[in-house]
Amino acid sequence: MASLALTDQVHGQVISSARSFSSRPPSYDGEESRESFMHALRAEQEAALAADAESTQSNRPSTTKKTAWEKSREMIPSGEYHWALEIGAIIISISSLVAILVLLPIFENRPLASWPLPVSLNAIISVLGATSRASLAFAISACISQGKWNWFRQRNDNIMVFDRFEEASRGPWGSLRLLWWTKLRHWTAVGALSAVVLVGFEPFLQAVITFSGEEVEFAGSENSTSIGKTVTLDSGTFTEISESPVFVEPLPEPWGQIGGAPFRCDYDFGALAAVWEGFSDLNTAENLKPEFRCSTGNCTWPSYASIATCSSCRDVSSHITTSSGIADVTDGTLITVYHDNHSNMQTVNLTFDYTRHELKSQNLSISNFNGLATKKHTNAQSPTGKNSAYLTARAINNHGRTIAFQDSKTLITAISMLKASQNYRNREQNWEDSTVTAEECALYFCTNVYRSAIEQGRLNETILGSYTFRDMDSYAIVNQPDEKSKVYDKYVNYTLLPPFPRSDLYLVLPKEEFSSKTGISVPNDLRFRITFNTTSLLRWISGAFSRTDLEWSKQLNFPVIQSGETEQPFVINRLGASTNLTKTFETVAASLTKWMRNRSLQTEPFVGARKEWVVRIRVNWSFLILPIGSLLGGCIFCLMSIFETRGLGLPAWRGSSLATLAHGLDVEARALLREARDGEQIATQARSLDVKFEDSDGGPELVHVTKETSRIQDEV
């Protein structure tokens, strides 16, 4: 209690003394009186404060222990001359920008998906950029504010300069005004320019990172990126019924004959379905494409070769022979389609003129009575009781018996056809005046070279080449001497229709041909295997494209007349209804090829590369020029400001309001400035009032300097 009373007493003395001084106006003559008055006032204040501090210290309990707060304060530089905060801010600013410069090259051109953090790269760059800019702005602002003290320490100038520095320390607009005022004639402009440029610091950093997408190939797998590539085709089975030969085939002398045992065929229903699907008129181009696996919807494969079924149609109309005559309506040898005996007319000894067109080598003909065609395709008769034929066909399995495909060593089947003109079908032209065309179409094994790619889930394929090279030493008769087998093959024109068990058939693609089409070099010729079991398909086609039982040798006629007619296979209806036979056979070939490749997709898939749309991180390095430039300029300015302040021996007051209040204008300058009545007059007065930062007994302060004094100092 005594100490408190003593303290109050001391404070009371200080306050009463201050009041006594303030209650009466100072009476002094000249500068010496003013200084002596101020000296006396400060001496009395210092004495009172010293007594107060001594009293307080005597009543404080003594202790040798320091609190954590005191220890932490000792670790941080303190006092009027330290720049720890500004230097720390510069270090933080540099570190943040360096972190950005480290991150950018690491992730440049890398997929966006490779970014490991839940926070986006843009967010990280934004945070680092904001930290760098804010730290640098803090340091620059402090150093610009310190510049006003340094400025007046070195020269006399009007008080408006003090205001310009203060405004510049508060933001870019004030810095721009300071920059304009300096006219780049003082290094302070570096700090002002850096502060102005900081406005674009973060926007430019944001523009550094962009994203762009591109398709990138990745290695695929059987489950993610594969397509059918048939190197081995094995379907169906042959089973021998008896080991003993039950039939013989004659051979040219001196080879005698060759015998064989019967066997049963188990067909692959997938192949059968593919044939009928090919003849269907519901097919589209998309339906005939093979299956594939592409997890991304965009995949590619290198060019490759695969077993396929090919087709070809050729015009053989030049082989047609034409004849005409008179025939009885019941004469089935001269007229193609069956005549209905149940017509209402008397048909005995009823004759008409006819015209007959024939391919003699194929035992194929088409003939109709002269005149217009019947009105309907099926069971339709003219008033004379005659039916019209529009198309006739015959299937051939031995390429040596064809007209246009005698060189084909891989023939599956060929069909020769005689076709009436569309004008005759439309009843626009008499039969004797119409033109009949002959066409021969074939299906055969081949090797296709493909370029396949999937784009947006859709398969696009290009056939680069198609080949029918056969290894003539393959497909030999089992359990027979090679020489005898070759003699038989030559005798039957190397037909693939198997009356005897044989070895597997091999197709060959020369490496030179493959390389010329694909640009891919391979060490050896490519070989493709078609097992003997697979040729069971040929036996089924031979029966499916012919009449049944004892009538198998008869030609196929369209339209099919049901009454009294031997049953004909379904294929004749599709051929007769087709308006483009070439397209029809291409569809059948594509359907069989699809079946082959779909099988290999399960057994021997061809793996390609998947394409993914990858978004990559791009870096526009040019946008870093502004942030780096502003950082360098700001750091240089701050260092120069710190060194200048220490060189002048000034405290680091920066923008301290307390320092401005304590060491601002002296009494005379303040009195002159107070003569102004409003803000405009204050500014005018400030422009005419020169001051300089000089030392005094109470510390440095802005002392009014007259024009004459300023002139003398400048001369000195």
From TrEMBL:
Residues 55-66 have a biased composition (Polar residues). Keywords: Membrane, Transmembrane, Transmembrane helix. InterPro entries: DUF3176. Coiled coil: none annotated. It comes from the Eukaryota. Residues 50-71 are annotated as: Disordered. Pfam families: DUF3176. The chain crosses the membrane at residues 83-107, 119-145, 621-643. This is Uncharacterized protein. It comes from Colletotrichum noveboracense. The lineage of its organism: Eukaryota, Fungi, Dikarya, Ascomycota, Pezizomycotina.
